[in-house]
């Protein structure tokens, strides 16, 4: 979008977590990092220099976190960057922040944002880190219940050639979910009116079923389909996200995170973990509303991130041991472990 540029090639670049007894990354320079991480840092510096060259920037670097300091120092001393800064006309302040300093933000569910939900729940577009597959079967005469129907190519979110779709994507990123869904309806109604499709405008809350019924109007009109293909892909992504079981779980996560924050304020970590324990269920005991193994890993990252420094002791060790046992059992009982669980095991 106009305000956000992602560098997916570097999606796996994470600051090293300092293990017990080892030197913290604060004490090492680039030379002290593992070879793979050194290469990734150099690639990031090169990419940023290219980006700043294209923007004609003379930057001033600031850093928060150990790896960020290394990146900022490398960029400051990078020969092509020094030459660029001599001739560039635009000034900018660049702030580097270690991703591991805000794990609570990335695993929390506080965002009332449609773009975030679409990117979280729909399957990734193969070979992409930042785009998703949108099921396009609804726009065809082929009606199949098969979720993974691969005869029809998936749609996606990137629609650079469709001004209406680009404007709608900005709304998904910048507005609250309710407003963004209303924008989706407005764009659809405008597109249908332009194509003289028999659309009945309705007021009140927008439902996924209502959006679906509007989308179906385009189905038998090839010209209308072609003219508004980008917009239809974004609205289909909205419908599929709103109907997705993970979206209804989102609110459960949010409620549980709020409860945790209250509990952590009033009691110690062991009692929080003991509250969590009965909710860890094996595959054959889970219903669709129960948390999966991945859900628990996300919750644990959230809990430990918001708690900060923890007093260790016998009670905490015992509580952690019980949670570990329950999680290991749940992971071992998974009939088809997800790629993440396979990676962890």
Automatic annotation (TrEMBL):
Tell me the keywords, alphabetical order.
Signal
Source taxon at top rank: Eukaryota
Bilayer-crossing regions: none
**Secretion signal span:** 1-19
Keyword Signal assigned to the entry: answer is yes
| GO BP, one annotated term | vesicle-mediated transport
Q: What is this protein called?
A: SCFD2 protein
User: Which species is this record about?
Assistant: Mionectes macconnelli
Gene name, please? Scfd2_0
């Amino acid at each position: 979008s106009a305000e956000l540029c992602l560098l997916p090639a570097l999606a796996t670049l994470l600051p090293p977590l300092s293990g017990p007894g080892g030197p913290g990354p604060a004490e090492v320079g680039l030379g002290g990092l593992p070879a793979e991480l050194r290469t990734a840092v150099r690639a990031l510096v090169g990419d940023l220099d290219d980006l700043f060259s294209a923007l004609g920037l003379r930057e001033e670097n600031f850093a928060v976190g150990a790896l960020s300091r290394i990146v900022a120092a490398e960029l400051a001393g990078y020969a092509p960057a020094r030459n660029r800064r001599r001739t560039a006309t635009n000034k900018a302040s660049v702030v580097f922040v270690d991703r591991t300093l805000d794990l609570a933000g990335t695993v929390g569910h506080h965002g009332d944002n449609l773009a975030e939900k679409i990117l979280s729940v729909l399957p990734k577009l193969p070979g992409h880190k930042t785009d998703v597959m949108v099921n396009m079967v609804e726009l065809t005469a082929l009606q199949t219940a098969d979720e993974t129907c691969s005869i029809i190519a998936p749609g996606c979110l990137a629609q650079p050639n469709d001004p209406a779709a680009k404007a709608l994507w900005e709304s998904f990123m910048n507005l609250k979910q309710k407003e963004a869904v209303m924008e989706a309806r407005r764009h659809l109604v405008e597109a249908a009116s332009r194509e003289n499709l028999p659309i009945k405008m309705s007021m009140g809350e927008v439902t996924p079923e209502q959006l679906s019924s509007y989308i179906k109007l385009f189905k038998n009109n090839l010209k209308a389909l072609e003219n508004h293909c980008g917009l239809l892909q974004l609205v289909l992504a909205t419908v599929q996200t709103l109907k997705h079981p993970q979206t209804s779980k989102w609110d459960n996560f949010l409620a549980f995170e709020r409860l945790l924050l209250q509990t952590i304020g009033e009691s110690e970590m062991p009692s929080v973990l003991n509250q969590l324990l009965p909710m860890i269920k094996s595959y054959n005991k889970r219903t669709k509303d129960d948390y999966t193994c991945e859900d628990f890993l996300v919750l644990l990252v959230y809990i430990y991130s918001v708690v900060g420094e923890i007093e260790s002791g016998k009670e905490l060790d015992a509580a952690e041991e019980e949670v570990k046992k329950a999680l290991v059992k749940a992971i071992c009982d998974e009939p088809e472990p997800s790629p993440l669980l396979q990676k962890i095991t």
